[in-house]
Specification:
Elements (H helix, E strand, L loop, with lengths): L1 E7 L6 H14 L3 E6 L15 H14 L6 E3 L2 H4 L6 H11 L4 E7 H5 L7 H7 E6 L7 H14 L5 E4 L9 H9 L9 H10 L13 H11 L5 H18 L3 H10 L8 H10 L6 H5 L1 H16 L4 H8 L10 H12 L8 H10 L1 H18 L6 H12 L7
Parallel strand pairs: 1-2, 1-4, 2-3, 4-5, 5-6
Helix pairs in contact: 2-9, 4-6, 9-10, 11-12, 11-17, 12-16, 12-17, 13-15, 15-16, 16-17, 17-18, 17-19, 18-19, 19-20
The protein binds adenosine-5'-triphosphate.
């Protein structure tokens, strides 16, 4: 087993870190990559205003999740949990004990590589792990790496050093990024889920007014609240909702915002959902109390209204996007249908739903509602009363799925 170890302060983690992690996984063929935020880095002070270590851990976890390699890329709190300075030699000894059979690879950028001989206990470091060094800028070529590699190999004959070139080199440091963030800039150097986390927690001097975010910021916040694997679906729903709004003359901005936020609470626990509903006075029936899948639309709507300042129309569209209900507005229908048939959805009958969505929105809504009812019956699950009422209302108003 090959394990990559990527240490740093990750204050905050940026796209340069992401490019390095991705390239190291590919080139070294890693089975596991551990991203390990340092508690007290031995060679640099944590600057004033550094967020609490829990935030750095959470942001590093988001970076790991952004790689979309579950089971491979993980964050480890081991240095944050250890007392005192975070010496890499201690980390490698601990990992060697934990994975005695594994080949460890220590990943580092140019700045770290060029000073490696000055680190605490370099013998242990070079005994326990191979070194995988990569440039941080276009200038960091072989001319920069070769003398240090020779020096290390002479001083530590067992040293195993490999240098790799990052295909997606991003010339940025966390120091520079912190300066940019404090001026309201720098989003382009961050993965959206990390940027959203920073905005929502108000880290690094960002003072975003969450109730008046522009679209890229709203997307970032939504993506920060979910797992990366859900983002494709959220993007698809946003795009489909906007197309449908254009087709049916609804407010495109509202459709976009509802699409962006509709699943933002998808990963909360049942208890968290219930707490939010209680906080904002959303009544719940017995079925909803036991089915978190039904609750995320209600809590998503609460976030949209109370955290992101969205208007009633967006609140209502998100609120009804899972169960549907009798007598829906055009925007509510659009979000329901877009969520059902956005381009990433793949199930028997989705093509028919896609056709209907642009021909007759009510027919598409009824087809969606009836597909859900059918699925619930097959799985012997209860059908929510609002879903049954949506079906009855549409049928009473002469809607069929024919034609
Ligand atoms: P700071 O500016 O606060 O010193 P940093 O940007 O150097 O931070 P660290 O968290 O200290 O980030 O870096 C962790 C590791 O990532 C180090 O090995 C570093 O060399 C490497 N690294 C940092 N930035 C980049 C980048 N843009 N491209 C590739 N590697 C990078």
């Amino acid at each position: 087993m090959k394990i990559g170890i990527f240490g740093g302060t990750f204050n905050p983690p940026h796209l340069g870190h992401l490019a390095a992690a991705r390239a190291a996984i590919d080139v070294l063929g890693l089975d596991k990559l551990l991203i390990i935020p340092a508690a007290i880095p031995p060679h640099k002070e944590l600057p004033e205003g550094t967020p609490a270590s829990g935030h750095r851990l959470a942001m590093a976890a988001k970076l790991a999740d952004a790689l979309l390699l579950p089971g491979v890329a993980e964050v480890s709190p081991m240095e944050l949990e250890r007392q005192g300075k975070s010496y890499t030699s201690d980390t490698l000894e601990a990992l060697h004990k934990q994975y005695p059979e594994a080949r460890l690879w220590l990943l580092m950028g140019t700045d770290m590589f060029l000073t490696l001989h000055l680190w605490h206990d370099p013998e242990t470091i070079l005994k326990r792990a191979g070194i995988c060094a990569f440039g941080r800028t276009e200038q960091d070529g072989e001319a920069v790496f070769a003398p240090q590699r020779e020096h290390l190999q002479k001083s530590f004959p067992k040293a195993d050093i490999t240098t790799i070139t990052l295909p997606g080199l991003v010339d940025i440091s966390s120091t520079k990024l912190r300066e940019l963030l404090a001026k309201g800039e720098g989003a382009e150097y961050l993965h959206p889920c990390v940027y959203g986390y920073i905005l929502m927690k108000g880290l690094y001097g960002t003072r975003a007014d969450l109730k008046h975010l522009d679209i890229p910021e709203l997307r970032a916040c939504s993506y920060a609240m979910v797992q990366e694997k859900r983002v494709r679906h959220i993007r698809g729903t946003e795009e489909e909702a906007v197309r449908l709004a254009r087709r049916w003359g609804a407010n495109e901005d509202y459709a976009r915002r509802a699409g962006i936020l509709h699943d933002c609470t998808k990963y909360l626990t049942g208890e968290e959902h219930i707490a939010i509903c209680e906080q904002y006075g959303v009544p719940l029936d017995d079925l909803e109390r036991t089915a978190p899948k039904l609750l995320h639309s209600k809590t998503g709507a609460c976030m949209a209204r109370h955290i992101f300042g969205e208007p009633d129309e967006v609140y209502e569209a998100i609120f009804w996007h899972t169960t549907a209900k009798a007598d829906m507005t055009v925007l509510e229908k659009i979000l329901y249908v877009a969520d059902y048939m956005e381009p990433n959805r793949d199930f028997d009958g989705v093509e028919r739903l896609r056709e209907l969505a642009y021909q007759d929105l009510d027919k598409a809504l009824l087809l969606g509602v009836e597909t859900t009812i059918q699925e619930m019956r097959e799985r012997q699950l209860p059908i929510h009363s609002n879903t049954a009422q949506a079906q009855a209302w549409l049928r009473d108003h002469g809607v069929t799925t024919e034609g």
